[in-house]
């Protein structure tokens, strides 16, 4: 049972070849592009959604921050689509791997911080000390703010990994419990099945929310630094 | 004679020579994938009143391929007396 629970999170390898590359690239198939003004329903739907999200997310930035639009929109599309695809049966979710999320979080956070330090050095350094702190507390507060700054990329990556992994694990466990309970007592199995339905709805929401949160936080770090 | 025919028009005896005539260079294989993709896209998605079927067939194939990939681990979880 213990080994079975986590085998769904191992990276897929077929005959020693990394199949995981294909799985990571698969969502790109689901986002076709079109040069036309009026394209098919699928592309129009996606363009509408993308416009909605980009307006909501990039409106707070100045022109320097808005150069990051492409990056942040691709980020939210990628995380959202990989999370949602992971809810299909038997599929592999790349965002459950901490390595991948660190690979997304660290460069983006570093880019935002370095942009801040290069262009607005005084303002970036000023972030280490909130306004109006009493003088004796200053050294300790600077240390705390530094720690809280450096923990940002770790928190970004671990938040995404933990949420998605925990959700998948819960679905596995409750689904297994439902199956096992069916032969023992059908009523309990029905209750467990209802829990499973609710959990799946939650997981759909979490999949999209996590994408949103990740991108929103990167965008906030950017806003601080441009 | 057997070089440029489509697959369904090739006679059974000519099949080995037809397979050998195909373009197995990387650009040939890429071209085959591209042709296949656009065949599916233009038939089911890039139409005036596309429905959910265009997307769901792709997702169903994805689920099926993932099932095939993980069959080796899944067969231990069947309800059998002896595994």
From TrEMBL, chain A:
The reaction(s) this protein catalyses: H(+)(in) = H(+)(out)
Keyword Ion transport: yes
CDD domains listed in its UniProt record: ATP-synt_Fo_a_6 (cd00310)
Signal peptide: none
Any Gene Ontology CC annotation: mitochondrial inner membrane
Cellular localization per UniProt: Mitochondrion inner membrane
Xref: Pfam families: ATP-synt_A
Keyword tags: ATP synthesis, CF(0), Hydrogen ion transport, Ion transport, Membrane, Mitochondrion, Mitochondrion inner membrane, Transmembrane, Transmembrane helix, Transport
GO biological process, any: proton motive force-driven ATP synthesis
Transmembrane segments: 12-31, 67-88, 100-117, 137-158, 170-198, 204-222
Assembly and interaction partners: Component of the ATP synthase complex composed at least of ATP5F1A/subunit alpha, ATP5F1B/subunit beta, ATP5MC1/subunit c (homooctomer), MT-ATP6/subunit a, MT-ATP8/subunit 8, ATP5ME/subunit e, ATP5MF/subunit f, ATP5MG/subunit g, ATP5MK/subunit k, ATP5MJ/subunit j, ATP5F1C/subunit gamma, ATP5F1D/subunit delta, ATP5F1E/subunit epsilon, ATP5PF/subunit F6, ATP5PB/subunit b, ATP5PD/subunit d, ATP5PO/subunit OSCP.
Record-given protein name: ATP synthase subunit a
Organism of provenance: Bos taurus (Bovine)
Lineage: Eukaryota, Metazoa, Chordata, Craniata, Vertebrata
TrEMBL record, chain B:
Membrane-spanning segments: 50-68
Major place of residence: mitochondrion
Subcellular location: Mitochondrion inner membrane
UniProt keyword list: Acetylation, ATP synthesis, CF(0), Hydrogen ion transport, Ion transport, Membrane, Mitochondrion, Mitochondrion inner membrane, Phosphoprotein, Transmembrane, Transmembrane helix, Transport
Source taxon at top rank: Eukaryota
Pfam families the record matches: WRW (PF10206)
Transmembrane helix is among the record's keywords: yes
Membrane-protein topology: Single-pass membrane protein
Purpose: Subunit f, of the mitochondrial membrane ATP synthase complex (F(1)F(0) ATP synthase or Complex V) that produces ATP from ADP in the presence of a proton gradient across the membrane which is generated by electron transport complexes of the respiratory chain. ATP synthase complex consist of a soluble F(1) head domain - the catalytic core - and a membrane F(1) domain - the membrane proton channel. These two domains are linked by a central stalk rotating inside the F(1) region and a stationary peripheral stalk.
Subunit structure: Component of the ATP synthase complex composed at least of ATP5F1A/subunit alpha, ATP5F1B/subunit beta, ATP5MC1/subunit c (homooctomer), MT-ATP6/subunit a, MT-ATP8/subunit 8, ATP5ME/subunit e, ATP5MF/subunit f, ATP5MG/subunit g, ATP5MK/subunit k, ATP5MJ/subunit j, ATP5F1C/subunit gamma, ATP5F1D/subunit delta, ATP5F1E/subunit epsilon, ATP5PF/subunit F6, ATP5PB/subunit b, ATP5PD/subunit d, ATP5PO/subunit OSCP.
Membership in a protein family: Belongs to the ATPase F chain family.
Protein name as it appears in the record: ATP synthase F(0) complex subunit f, mitochondrial
Underlying gene: ATP5MF
